[in-house]
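Bumping my old thread because nobody answered last time. Still need a sequence for this structure:
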């Protein structure tokens, strides 16, 4: 509570002259009432631009206008010395605070608190009983027109329910269900942003399942329709879509219990998943990792069902989905890699791969190996058909834990060591530049990675041996 008041005083305490009627609104009020740390602070007044410019002059700050919606101008005042510090000032919609609040999405976001001179909080305005809904843990639309005016609010309802551990009240669910098809006309980047925030929560799975039951996922990912009727082989007890949902559930459980699964290296695993959107995108790939199966399904003469090449097909399909949702290049590459490699990480265990093969995979993936191993753990835990035994699952779990531990305690350092020799050394030994040189350097590096050679002399000796046998 003190945090938000201190922030307001820091921004507004020095502002002199005329003081308009200013209110704090939206998520900042909600978080303040729920004793949560707010992500940002939203203020509202009649002439937002003028007030923002006055504040910027006082604080030697910059004003960044957000004018995507003509009737909802907003101005961000950004600290020039500390760009992560900012405050948003929006124009009031309508002639009164109550009129403005009635245009908002949910009652829990339709509460205002007056801000007096100096940033002191004053009277609370709650015309739609938003505080009561917060106390009861309910997400409720402000009115029947809330969803039709912006169908993205369907996803926002799930996001608030997931992040706050709230329940969406029945009438709101009914209005949401009626508006599902309108999501087709919503900007895909806005959908992507809300999905990412849903997956970022610790309890995304039950809400993703509810979204599926409502038909929301069919609209966002039409590719999943084919997954829902795609029967699998004896290793699976569910169709492709049912299995994918179960993988998501197990993936989320692992991510919520890193200490339990990874013990001494749990902190490193957590740090691995923090940058950008790696954690929420890992959950998304859990849901879509087998999207290529329906298009690659085959049946052998003995009746066994196969899905040869489904990981490659799925990676291309996920690439198309990422582009459709206008993901960043970094996010696109992450989801593509996880789907493309999800079968390979399982083969490292089940095929009894050689140490050199495993090290080659770790070198290729580097830190991306960690989310892939987690994905593999969830995948195997969700594989419960008659051909998939408890012993098989337990062995894979032990291997996965050991692989993660070994990566952080040994493999990562080994991969980061400098090459023991380079192309110039081979030229000095009489080899001409070209593809053969690259192939030979690759073999030497593999020998270094698995500990076959440990110093420059051993590397040069191996190089001479390989050159003589070429």
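Sorry it took so long. Here it is:
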């Amino acid at each position: 509570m003190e945090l938000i008041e201190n922030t307001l005083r820091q921004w507004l305490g020095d502002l002199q002259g005329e003081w308009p009627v200013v209110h704090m609104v939206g998520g900042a009020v909600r978080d303040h009432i729920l004793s949560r740390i707010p992500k940002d602070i939203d203020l509202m007044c009649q002439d937002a631009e003028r007030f923002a410019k006055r504040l910027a002059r006082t604080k030697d700050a910059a004003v960044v206008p957000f004018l995507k919606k003509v009737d909802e101008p907003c101005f961000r005042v950004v600290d020039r010395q500390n760009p992560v510090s900012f405050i948003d000032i929006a124009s009031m919609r309508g002639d009164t605070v109550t009129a403005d609040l009635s245009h908002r999405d949910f009652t829990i976001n339709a509460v205002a608190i007056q801000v007096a001179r100096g940033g002191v909080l004053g009277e609370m305005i709650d015309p739609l009983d938003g505080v009561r809904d917060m106390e009861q843990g309910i997400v409720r639309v402000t009115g029947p027109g809330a969803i039709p005016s912006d169908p993205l609010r369907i996803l926002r309802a799930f996001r608030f329910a997931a992040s706050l551990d709230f329940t969406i009240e029945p009438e709101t669910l009914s209005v949401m269900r009626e508006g599902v098809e309108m999501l087709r006309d919503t900007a895909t980047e806005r959908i992507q942003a809300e999905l990412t925030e849903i997956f970022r929560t610790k309890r995304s799975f039950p809400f993703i399942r509810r979204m599926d039951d409502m038909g929301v996922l069919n609209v966002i990912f039409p590719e999943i329709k084919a997954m829902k009727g795609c029967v699998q082989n004896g290793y699976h007890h569910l169709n492709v879509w049912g299995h994918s949902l179960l993988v998501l559930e197990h993936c989320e459980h692992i991510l919520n219990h890193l200490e339990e699964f990874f013990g001494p290296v749990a902190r490193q695993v957590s740090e691995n998943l923090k940058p950008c959107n790696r954690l929420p995108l890992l959950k998304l790939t859990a849901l879509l990792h087998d999207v290529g199966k329906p298009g690659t399904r085959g049946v052998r003469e003995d009746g066994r069902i196969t899905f040869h090449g489904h990981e490659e097909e799925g990676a291309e399909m996920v690439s198309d989905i990422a582009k459709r949702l206008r993901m960043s290049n970094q996010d696109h590459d992450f989801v593509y890699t996880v789907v493309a490699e999800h079968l390979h990480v399982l083969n490292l265990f089940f095929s009894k791969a050689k140490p050199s093969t495993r090290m080659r995979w770790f070198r290729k993936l580097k830190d991306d190996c960690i989310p892939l191993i987690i994905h593999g753990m969830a995948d195997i835990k969700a594989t419960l058909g008659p051909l998939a035994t408890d012993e098989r699952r337990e062995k894979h779990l032990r291997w996965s834990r050991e692989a993660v531990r070994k990566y952080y305690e040994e493999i990562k350092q080994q991969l980061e060591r400098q090459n023991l020799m380079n192309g110039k050394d081979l030229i000095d030994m009489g080899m001409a530049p070209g593809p053969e040189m690259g192939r030979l350097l690759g073999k030497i590096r593999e020998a270094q990675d698995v500990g076959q050679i440990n110093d420059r002399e051993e590397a040069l000796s191996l190089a001479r041996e390989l050159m003589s046998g070429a």
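The chain has a mean pLDDT of 93. Let me know if any region looks off to you.
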